[in-house]
Amino acid sequence: MWYFDDTKKLNNIFQGEDRMTRRNLLKGAAVGLTTNFFPKSVFGANDRINIGFIGTGGMGRSNMRQALNHENARVYFLCDVFEDNLAKAIDEAKAHSPKTTRDFRRVLDDRNIDAVCIGTPDHWHAYMAVEAMKRKMHVYCEKPIARTVEEIKLMMAAGKKYGVVFQSGQWQRSGNQFIKAVDHVRSGIIGGIHRCQTWLHWQDGGIGSPADSVPPEKLGYWGWNMHLGPAPYREFNENRFLYKWRFFWDYANGMAGDWGPHTIDIGQWAMDSKGPLSVVSLGDIKCVNDNRETPTIWFTSYQFKGFQLLFDHNACSPAPEGNKKNGSIEFIGENGSIFVDRSFCSLKDRDGKEVEGVKADGKAGYEHWRDFLEHVRDNDLDTRTSLERVGPTNISCLLAAAAFKYGNGTKQLDWNPETMTSSNEGIDPYLGYSYRAPWKLEI
Questions:
Q1: What is the per-residue burial (b if ≥16 Cβ within 10 Å, else e) of 123-149?
Q2: Which residues have a Cβ under 8 Å from the Cβ of 24 and sit 6 or more positions away?
Q3: Nearest one of 369, 170, 152, 351 to 267, comparing CA atoms
Q4: What band does 323 get if pLDDT is binned at 50, 70 and 90?
């Protein structure tokens, strides 16, 4: 096994004049991944589940904190290419005395690990999840579960092949107010629903346009190269690192990928739909002056069988309109409406009078991790956000980006939710992703 633990030595190589050596290192970053298949663990009632956390930035540590709230979970391994992130996670999980590394392959090769939590940038999700599945490790993966539609299809196939528990970080499905909203929709209390509207309105102050530079010391050239992974090689730019990477197509899909798995997912879940029949997406970069690539104003219209779903993203909003703020969702039916966000669920009649209101109980994150851990213990694959449940809804989110790149409002992307394919000529480049050698996504 080839690991890159001698960071200082490797940084010197990258910074030196031997360009051939640097090129060879870039090409050889994935050499040595093992193909060992680990036996699936069997848990007793009091056994602790050993979890490896890959990616310990904001969401990675948030998930780790949720796991720490459960007595049957053990933070066994921590991994991050950025030493600052790793140090923060080590401090928070010190009671569990976790092992640490900067190379995720050490986590995947540890036979004591039962499950992994993937909290890396989006473009790493599919590869790491599939490699964990091959080793019979259960997977908790942040949303969106992949960067492209084709990756999700491969992940779903891998899930069936290896039979491990999978949970997406779409914790809103465990929120009491969201569950109530879905129950209301399916009960027929507001009659036939013809429209679902989602809002993501906020004020984006911009991320600036910093010049390319040398990676910070606690990341180094090796860490930067591993951060990029299967994405195209770029010189270090602070806007392509930490939170801001989500505004670049190499690694993510902007707010459609970031928030769509929360809002679009709830709409599609409530309506019990496998996916849209067509998508039109229109967007632009307004109100900021920086080097991002993804839209700040973005409107996507989905046509499902029997209803329309709208994803409305406006990062130039002077102020949220009423309750229509980040993550708001409304179902409009013949006899009333159902509104839900992260604070409450409100059922209203045709005259707009509230019939019932339910506040969030604040337990969604805890319940979501409890659901995952119990399913791992019982080897039950049917979690609240299993691949079978959220694979199709994540695809819908990524179709917004595909439709935007394909036509930006001038072309309709036609979709067959049964076969998860499009008949549009020239659409394939926007549904797939070419991995940088030597990384390969194979199941």
A1: bbbbbbbbbbbbbbbbbbbbbbbbbbb
A2: none
A3: 170
A4: low
State how far the Cα of 387 lies from the Cα of 157, in Å rounded to an integer. Answer: 9
CA distance 416 to 421: 5
Confidence of residue 13 (pLDDT cuts 50, 70, 90): very low
> Between 123 and 32, whose confidence is greater?
123
pLDDT tens digits along 340-366: 999 999 999 999 999 999 999 999 999
Cis peptide before 144 (omega within 30 of 0): yes
Q: Which residue has the tokens 């970080």?
A: 169
Euclidean distance between CA atoms 116 and 52, whole angstroms: 5
Task: Give the C-alpha separation, 347 to 181, whole Å.
Answer: 8
Task: Using the Cα atoms of residue 80, residue 86, residue 88 and residue 91 in order, give the sign of their dihedral.
Answer: positive
Confidence of residue 417 (pLDDT cuts 50, 70, 90): very high
The pTM score is: 0.91
Instruction: Report whether 351 contacts 366 (CB < 8 A).
Output: no
* Distance, CA of 195 to CA of 173 (rounded, Å): 20
Percent of the chain with pLDDT over 90: 85
- C-alpha count within 13 angstroms, C-beta hemisphere, residue 212: 5
Residue whose tokens read 């992260």:
342
pLDDT band at 35; cut points 50, 70, 90: very low
**Buried residues in 391-411 as b, exposed as e (16+ CB within 10 A):** bbbbbbbbbbbbbbbbbeeee
Mode of pairing for the β-strands spanning 328-333 and 193-201: antiparallel
Pairwise CA distance, residues 184 & 174, whole Å: 16
Please give the backbone phi and psi of residue 416, each rounded to the nearest 5 degrees, phi first. -110, 105
- Categorize the per-residue pLDDT at 26 as very low, low, confident or very high, splitting at 50, 70 and 90: very low
Contacts of 51 (CB under 8 A, 6+ apart): 67, 73, 74, 75, 76, 77, 113, 114, 115, 116, 117, 140
Residue ranges of E strands in 55-97: 73-79
Half-sphere exposure of 179 (CA within 13 A, CB side): 12
Report pLDDT digits (tens) over 362-397: 999 999 999 999 999 999 999 999 999 999 999 999
Tell me the C-alpha to C-alpha distance, in Å, between residue 170 and each of 63, 126, 298, 381, 404.
12, 16, 22, 16, 24
pLDDT of 33 strictly over 70: no
Run of H or E including 20: helix 19-27
